[in-house]
Amino acid sequence: MSAATVTTPAPSPLRRRALGVAAAVVACLVIWAIGALAGVDYTVESPGQPATVIGAGAIVTVALGAALLGWAALALLERFATRVARPVWISVAIVVTVLSFFPLLSVEATGGAKLVLGATHMAVAVALITLLPRPRR
């Protein structure tokens, strides 16, 4: 009996990146929904601003915007700095993720809200860093 080798074609970069964007948005929405079901109060007060309730629409908008900006940045790096695009982009993505936590520290919100919103920041980073760059060969 002989073993047949089955190879599956790698998904196209466009499909993989679209999946990364979708995964980032869906993960954030799921995290937000779990928090909402657990009773998290998403009221956030920024210094000098009126209180705002962070709803599902804001979660989708920010996650989608961040994901698309990340994709655009990676595409530009791949176009103009092909050899170093992947490591530079991953480094920038990590720095941007760390910096994204600073606004959470400066707003008034419950601990649960800060925890859940911080988790959404991590979900975007994990999805994008995992799925946007081309896999190593």
Stretches where pLDDT is under 50 for at least 5 consecutive residues are none
Globally, the shape reads globular
- As a percent range, the share of helical residues equals 55-70%
Strand content: under 5%
Main sheet characteristics: 2 strands, antiparallel
Secondary-structure element order, as H and E?
A: HEEHHHH
- Strands of the widest sheet, in order across it, are 1-2
Average pLDDT taken over every residue: 93
Instruction: Give the class from helix and strand content and strand pairing.
Output: mainly alpha
Count of beta strands: 2
Distance between the termini: 32 Å
Count, helices: 5
**Using only CA atoms, what is the Rg?**
18 Å
Describe the structure.
This protein has helices at residues 13-37, 56-80, 85-100, 102-106, 111-131; strands at residues 43-44, 52-53. The chain is built from five helices and two strands; from the N terminus they run H-E-E-H-H-H-H. Strands 1-2 form a two-stranded antiparallel sheet. By secondary structure, it is mostly helical.
Summarize the entry for a quick read.
With 137 residues, the chain is mainly α.
Secondary structure layout:
Layout: H1 13-37, E1 43-44, E2 52-53, H2 56-80, H3 85-100, H4 102-106, H5 111-131
Antiparallel strand pairs: 1-2
Primary descriptors:
2 strands; 137 residues; single chain; two-stranded antiparallel sheet; mainly alpha
